Amino acid sequence: MTASRPEAPPLPAPSLMLELPADALEREALASAIEALAPLMDGAGGTDSALLLVSDNAGRASALQFWADAQRSGVGLANPELFPWCLANSPGAALSRRFDLAGPNITWLDGPAVQAQAWQTAHDLLRSGRAARVFLVALHLGQEGQPGWLRAWVATASDAAPQRA
Q: By residue range, what is the domain housing residue 154?
């Protein structure tokens, strides 16, 4: 018989809540968020820091722009700087590079519906010792004139300690 996996505590209020510009491409949206994320993530780099990113539309805006450019001017003349940002895990990779987070890096593509699963994974990483701190970032890029948003949580090994009755 296998032991049941300990449940993570309920997802607390975010450590950071930020509105992102409307209709920004991934690179532009993250540029505006990095300054706000710096107090949470600066100095926390290394292999014991994990990043979990949840988004319902990461990669979408850049992919649409890249292929619109390609249709207009040909693939050979489309903006090559956009291409890496077409990948759904590009925001997580960019944050990991900027803050030197070299531990596990996972991206979920289902938006708020999977935040609880990501939070559980954060606590599993902490309990197993694969990370000493985990940053959970939920990202929705603004579209159709509506602003986007970013929410960030930080969990540490002490948050994942077994609860005593």
A: 16-58+85-160
CATH number, domain with residue 141: 3.40.47.10
Q: Is 72 exposed, middle or buried (0-12, 13-18, 19+ CB in 10 A)?
A: exposed
How many domains in the chain?
Answer: 1
What is the 3 state secondary structure string of the chain? CCCCCCCCCCCCCCCEEEEECCCCCHHHHHHHHHHHHHHHHCCCCECCEEEEEEECCCCHHHHHHHHHHHHHHCHHHCCCCCHHHHCCCHHHHHHHHHHCECCCEEEECCHHHHHHHHHHHHHHHHHHCCCCEEEEEEEECCCCCCCEEEEEEEEEHHHHCCCCC
Model confidence, pTM:
0.85
Q: What is the pLDDT of residues 105-158, one digit of tens each?
A: 999 988 677 899 999 999 999 999 999 999 999 998 888 889 999 999 999 988
